[in-house]
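thread from #wetlab-drylab

HS: before we spend reagent money on co-crystallization trials with nicotinamide-adenine-dinucleotide, can we at least see a predicted complex? here's what I'd submit
DV: go for it
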Amino acid sequence: MSSSAAEPSFRESVDLMFDRAAALMDMSPGLAQKIRVCNSTYTVRFGVRLRGKIETFTGYRSVHSEHMEPVKGGIRYALSVNQDEVEALAALMTYKCALVETPFGGAKGGLCIDPRQWDERELEQITRRFAYELIKRDLIHPAQNVPAPDMGTGEREMAWIVDQYSRMNTTDINAKACVTGKPLNSGGIRGRVEATGRGVQYALREFFRHPEDVARAKLSGGLDGKRVIVQGLGNVGYHLAKFLAEEDGARITAIIERDGALVDEKGLDVEAVKQWITSTGSVKGFPGAGFVEDGAAVLEADCDILIPAAMEGVINLDNAARIRAPLIVEAANGPVTFGADEILRQKGALLIPDMYANAGGVTVSYFEWVKNLSHIRFGRMQRRAEEARSRLLVEELERLSADRGLGWTLAPGFKDRFLTGSDELALVRSGLDDTMRIAYQSMREVWLGRENVEDLRTAAYIVAIERVAATYRSKGL
Ligand SMILES: NC(=O)c1ccc[n+]([C@@H]2O[C@H](COP(=O)([O-])OP(=O)(O)OC[C@H]3O[C@@H](n4cnc5c(N)ncnc54)[C@H](O)[C@@H]3O)[C@@H](O)[C@H]2O)c1
């Protein structure tokens, strides 16, 4: 995305960020090098007969670190997919999983394809063939390598992949755990589709619980009324924009898409914009909002929070100096290049890094994987425990009221609702919320507690690298 000749590649950018953090740590250069490099990248070229001729596709599955297995990371469908990008994304997965303590190594996959050029039947053929190539080599496997959706893929592709794996491994009782982000009827979990956007919301809520941190971004108060610009109204961007607007009172003052940006200082109706894009294929012509042809220029507009949620490299050496947002939340992976990161820091902007901000997806993927392996509806066990706790609480309230002659009565229906316990979605949400709070605390401790650590990204890298290093130290290389 970035155009300056001085800009490093995406993978180099991730490595430079790693080096900046590692230089502040007490770790041997040899171990740092081992953690930083990508273990392996598999390239596959395969042919599929489509529309009367043979089309050749190129795909990748990169494994960055197997310090824990399975390795985990999405599969991206885009024409821009290449080895450098897949390796950068795989490395970020290693650090992300370590930061939020999901017990996975890091991986990523990609297929060079514009999914909009093919119809559903053709996409199924292509996906099954790509999956076949990866399954054959254990690059999709419940115990070794578990993909998930990323840009250009979703539940539909994951359903084809799990079905393909099941056909090729008919006796594997854990087949459903070979991929996450599946539809519910293929072994998915409630709350996975929205999980990354929900995680961004929880990350922001946690940030705004710390007034000193908010002040460092030259902001004050909470999320209510904050002016937010979102780039990319796909899976991640749509959910986070909707939740922030509908549940936290934020104003989405601009939505930037591929073909332009919509702007409205009063706040855009996210649901209406999404429906418009779905029905017309574009943001153009959306009624009642301003339209800017050069969408990328809107990244530089005045706002409180800028959330790039589309792709990497969009804030780079060319535009970083003109970015006005005091707070930038990396919902996408790698939207800010290494050079841009330095410029933003010098300007005093505060950045919540990708490996933390968008970790909601992999966190809920972990819950889905555990659900598949345990062969029991997620939360059935916890539900029993919660019901028992709730029952004790209600009994205690009733006893207190009777003892003291208070005459308290519980609202009609309340007791029943209270005693039903939590459903799967509530458990997923509370597990995700806990994860985002705890990870923020661990990052924050390093950010504010250690000398020479100036920013949350470096802090996040330090926490992640320390955890990966600890695993290597205890189990050996
Ligand atoms: N899906 C997940 O669970 C997940 C998890 C973690 C991180 N991410 C990251 O979030 C980002 C978005 O992923 P997604 O799953 O939402 O993808 P998606 O394909 O669902 O949506 C991407 C959106 O961005 C738009 N877009 C693409 N290029 C753009 C550009 N140059 N300018 C403006 N808009 C553009 C697309 O039109 C689309 O609406 C990626 O960086 C991905 O790696 C996704």
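DV: The chain has two domains: 38-186, 193-379+422-477.
HS: ok that's useful, forwarding to the group
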